Amino acid sequence: MSFRSLEVTEISPEQLELIRQMEALGHTAVEENLDSVYSERATSVRNYTDALRKSLESPYFGLEDSSLQEKFATLVHDVLSSTRIQDAKKAMDPLSQEDLCLLMKYVYYCLSRPRIYNCSALLSWHEKIVETAGVGCISRVLADKRAL
Asked: GO annotations under biological process (predicted)?
């Protein structure tokens, strides 16, 4: 008998459908989506809330092409770096609990590559995410089997 009420290794039907759509479209559609997010972010540099929400809109888990994973991580890192840490709370207010956990997952992904990404800014964001989402967010991210 299991003590868990939620199986963390199970993929939801929505996520499975997204994976199937992504496989059907191929990597070109993923890159086009990434390009559109970059262009929208460039037009609204000061609108960090929309930029953050847009960068977390389409999480792509388990991509075989590591260059795409790096591009998405760079996009999220650019949004986090361009947002002042004083405005972090306001930027995270409209995000759901799942979005905050995904943001934390990107923070951990970027922290694991200190030669590429600015770790001091990421640690500040880590602190703000924990303040907003709670300590349980760390447990959910570490228990999630899906890798970026």
From this structure: Arp2/3 complex-mediated actin nucleation; regulation of actin filament polymerization
> If the chain, 148 residues long, is cut into consecutive pieces of 10 residues, what is the mean pLDDT of each piece?
52 64 58 57 59 76 73 86 87 90 93 91 95 94 84
Residue labelled with tokens 């709670």:
134
The predicted pLDDT at position 1 comes to: 46
From the list 53, 57, 8, the residue with the least C-alpha distance to 33 is 57
Q: For residues 104 and 125, is the Cβ–Cβ distance under 8 A?
A: no
Which helix (H) or strand (E) covers residue 117, if one does?
Answer: none
Q: Both tokens of residue 113?
A: 């590559």
Return the pLDDT at 81.
Answer: 87
Give the pTM.
0.69
CB atoms within 10 A of CB 126: 18
Spatial contact of 51 and 79, defined as CB atoms under 8 Å apart:
yes
Return the CATH number of 13-143, one of 1.20.1250.20, 3.40.50.300, 3.40.1190.20, 1.25.40.190.
1.25.40.190
Around 30, how many Cα atoms within 13 Å sit in the side-chain half-sphere?
Answer: 25
